[in-house]
Amino acid sequence: MPTTAHYPDNYAAPDTSAVGWLWRWLTAASIFGNIFLNYYSNTRPFNGQTMGEVSARYPTLLTPAGYAFSIWGLIFLGLAVYAVWQLLPAQSRLSLPTALAKPLTLANVATAGWVVLFAYEEILPSVGLMVLILALLMVVYGRARRRIFVDAAPAWVGVPFSLFMGWISVASVINITIGLRELGWQTADGMSITLTLGLLAVVVALGLFISRVFRDMVYPLVLAWALVAIWVVRLREVPELGWAALAGAVIVAVLGIVFSRQGGRKTPWQIRDEAAAAREAEIAASRSMSAGE
Predict the structure, then answer these.
(1) Residue 164: which of 196, 133, 127, 191 has the closest Cα?
(2) Interior angle at CA 280, CA 279 and CA 283, nearest 5
(3) b/e map of 148-176 (b: 16 or more CB within 10 Å)?
(4) Alpha-carbon torsion angle 130, 133, 134, 135, nearest 10
(5) Residue 292 pLDDT more than 60?
(6) What distance in Å separates the CA atoms of residue 41 and residue 30, rounded to the nearest whole number?
(7) Residues 6+ apart with CB under 8 A from 283
(8) Is 152:277 a contact under the CB 8 Å cutoff?
(9) Which of 119, 137, 240, 273 would be 46's cystine partner, CB 3.0–4.6 Å?
(10) Which residues cross the membrane (predicted)?
(11) How many of the other CB atoms lie within 10 Å of CB of 62?
(12) Average pLDDT value over all residues in the chain
């Protein structure tokens, strides 16, 4: 029988063992636990203050208008749907839940932990945890998108992770800015605006890069959502920053959609993933035949 050891992150080896299913249940538990803790933190705030109240104590030029944070509702809805979907027996033949289980579980636990740390204004530890969350979501996102590329997973599965990573990308920039300020890093007002404009350019470039490489239109749209919210809150105070944010939102939204719909020459990892996906399909087919005998 052909070996599958050379494929990354158990690509062609869905784990249907007891341990594999345990990790799927842990994934679901971490998602719903994260949702519950975020709800709880707003109804019975840790340290007597909500996330919005703490955020208001640490303003930055990149902090978006309050309404922008409502995107968490969409993120949590998508994650909840995925949590249930990956537990269904029909998904036992897919390697996707196996590959995502550990990093996604850790990302949700870390996100819940960040809420507690930030509520207690443990700024520097919260920055470290935010960077960890982003790193874990990059793993989750990459593994999901690669399977979607080769039809080894349904396209909709990538949406929750695009939403999650997109928003955490913006939150990381803001959190790091707050952390630098806590370390005593200060700049003159003019320099702060210049640096913020530079960070906006980085956010736009990141959105275009992700949309082009991973053919994803959701991720850049999340960034556009955040940039529009920055425009709303900064237009009167710092007009040049507000208009730059709006221009960035238009660019990343329009070009992000265009880039996401463009093909291109296949990369070595795409070719390798196609081979792995074919092997995964063979495994699923063989299991179906075995079950039918």
Answers:
(1) 133
(2) 90
(3) bbbebbeeebbbbbbbbbbbbbbbbbbbe
(4) 120
(5) no
(6) 16
(7) 4, 12, 13, 14, 93
(8) yes
(9) 119
(10) 20-40, 61-85, 123-141, 153-178, 190-210, 217-235, 241-259
(11) 23
(12) 85
